[in-house]
Design a protein that fits this description.
This protein is α+β, with helices and mostly antiparallel strands. Helix content is 38%, strand content 14%. It has one domain.
Length: 127
């Protein structure tokens, strides 16, 4: 699996875009969750978490990947593809807060493929 495979997959219609978690119960993915899924789709497990703010959202149902956090890449994937915590944060902002689709995120990744740390945050003058 290469960075270009991730870019191509983001541009395909295979995945429905979601927010805030790698993968949610309604089978939506953030851009980082798509990467996890194409690296190894068998490592997901369903996890329902009771929310302490029951009046707004009683249950959050999402998936964990390889027993890891539901919002960040496992370290083996982040290290292999050069996606440190800052890059994950910027990509998550693009995914969750801008309305840009996977194809637009793929364009950003492709433009900065040699150094993903150069992906600008949303609403940056460097876009």
């Amino acid at each position: 699996m290469t960075l270009q495979d991730w870019i191509n997959t983001l541009r395909s219609d295979k995945y429905k875009q979601g927010k805030h978690f790698l993968r949610r119960a309604e089978n939506t993915f953030c851009c980082l969750g798509v990467l996890c899924d194409i690296v190894n789709p068998t490592l997901w497990s369903d996890e329902a978490e009771e929310n302490k703010y029951e009046h707004t959202c009683p249950t959050i149902s999402r998936f964990t990947y390889d027993g890891h956090n539901t919002q960040l890449l496992p370290s083996d994937i982040s290290e292999k593809y050069g996606i440190d915590g800052n890059v994950q944060d910027v990509l998550s902002q693009w995914n969750d807060n801008t309305g840009i689709g996977f194809a637009g995120i793929a364009d950003l990744i492709e433009k900065h493929a040699t150094d993903l740390t150069r992906i600008p945050p949303p609403h940056s003058e460097f876009i």
